[in-house]
Specification:
The protein is of the alpha/beta class. It has a single domain, classed as Carbamate kinase (3-Layer(aba) Sandwich), CATH 3.40.1160.10. Helix content is 39%, strand content 17%. The chain has a nine-stranded mixed beta sheet, with helices on both faces. Helix 2 packs parallel to helix 9 and helix 6 runs parallel beside helix 8. Bound molecules: uridine-5'-diphosphate. The site of uridine-5'-diphosphate has 22 residues, from helix 3 and helix 4.
Length: 241
């Protein structure tokens, strides 16, 4: 085994990364590819990996709220969407021989363990991939904040924000709107906040800044990228610190 850059990380996977080109729901091939990338780094590098999964490929609270729903109710639907993705990812990882546990911040003991910090750490120490579902269990958040919070709780050394749809890092401006936009290799938390750069929710950026947790924003759907990030290849993605 080569020495990885970090021994324990939280990987944030947006629900949309599960949808592939269809843009909605779970695409089997895409899920297989993502699971393969995760298994490879777990096996080859021995990195402890906890994965916080989003739910935007199925439901987002803001959409419901925008159509007149009660925001908290709509967000609870979003939290359930993350559980669906977590179970799908678990199934694919286990089919590949990777032991996993799903822990949910929303209690549903028939299908997932409750989130218990010490137990999550124990699973990681035993080489299991821990999939964290249900966000924080509270409305008015997205899954970016639990990615940051859980990373601090379980002593992870970095948050890896996996993007999709060709987004390969943080840009000076939106490259789809501004042809002069350039990709940043590294950027500070303060610049992300002050310039409103599209990285993660400001709440999670502030949390990472306060707790000195680096973030790598990278395209998780490009084969080998997760491995390259853990190998310390600075050309992949953008480092926020
Ligand atoms: N959500 C929530 N609290 C949390 C995490 C998520 O209420 O702590 C809800 C919220 O409605 C959100 C949805 O779950 O829109 C899906 O999560 P997210 O938007 O983070 O998914 P992603 O964009 O990563 O696919």
């Amino acid at each position: 085994m080569t020495e990885p850059r970090w021994n324990r990380v939280v990987l944030k996977l947006s629900g949309e990364a599960f949808a592939g080109d269809q843009g909605y729901g779970i695409d089997g091939e895409t899920l297989r590819m993502l699971a393969g990338e995760i298994c490879a780094v777990r096996n080859d590098l021995g990195t402890d990996i906890a994965i916080v999964v989003g739910g935007g490929n199925i439901w987002r609270g803001q959409i419901g709220a925008g159509e007149g729903m009660d925001r908290a109710q709509a967000d609870q639907m979003g939290m359930l969407a993350t559980v669906i993705n977590a179970l799908g990812l678990q199934e694919m990882l286990e089919q590949m021989g990777q032991p996993t546990r799903v822990q949910s911040a929303v209690h549903m003991e028939q299908i997932a363990e409750p989130y218990i910090r010490r137990r999550a750490i124990r699973h990681l120490e035993k080489g299991r991939v821990v999939i964290l579902a249900g966000g924080l269990g509270s409305p008015f958040f997205t899954t970016d904040t639990p990615a940051a919070l859980r990373a601090a709780e379980i002593d992870a050394q970095a948050v890896l924000k996996g993007t999709h749809s060709g987004v390969d890092g943080v840009y000076t401006a939106d490259p789809k709107l501004d042809p002069t936009a350039t990709k940043l290799t590294e950027v500070s938390y303060m610049d992300v906040l002050n310039k409103g750069l599209n990285v993660m929710d400001p709440t999670s950026i502030t949390f990472c800044m306060d707790n000195a947790l680096p973030i790598v924003v990278f395209d998780v759907t490009a084969a080998g990228n997760l491995r390259r990030v853990l190998d310390g290849d600075g050309a992949v993605g953008t480092l926020v610190r």
